[in-house]
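WARN retry 2 of 3 for item q-0093 after timeout on previous attempt; input resubmitted unchanged.
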Amino acid sequence: MVSQLKFDKFKTQYRGYNKAEVIAFIDEVINMLDALNIEHKQLINENGILKEQINRFDDIKVQINETLVSAQTVASDIKLQAIKQQEFIIRTAEHNANKVLTEKLREANKLDQEIAVYKAKLKTVINSQLEMLEYVDKYED
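OK item q-0093 returned
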């Protein structure tokens, strides 16, 4: 549009340029400037809209990054809590197992003692029976 203006030549007349051509040229320049002004306003408006979109996308990006960091923090906290809970469960299970083992060992020792007592009593009874048999054998002869 504007590049066409450079090549326009006016015919000369007596006392200067042809008035009708100059007025037509000025009208053409005005029309081109109006069109360029409208296009310029549209581009400024479109640029403003695009800048707003960029700002919204930047805000969304910041929110996504904050959400990601928050999610990573929560995941780390959950993992740490799970590890602590696992360690607590293991310690509790080991403690309970030790208690059960200690109790069972105590019961086994008690049973061993009871068996020893019963063996001693049984030996005493058998020895006593044996002595009675020997006594009976001695008097039967």
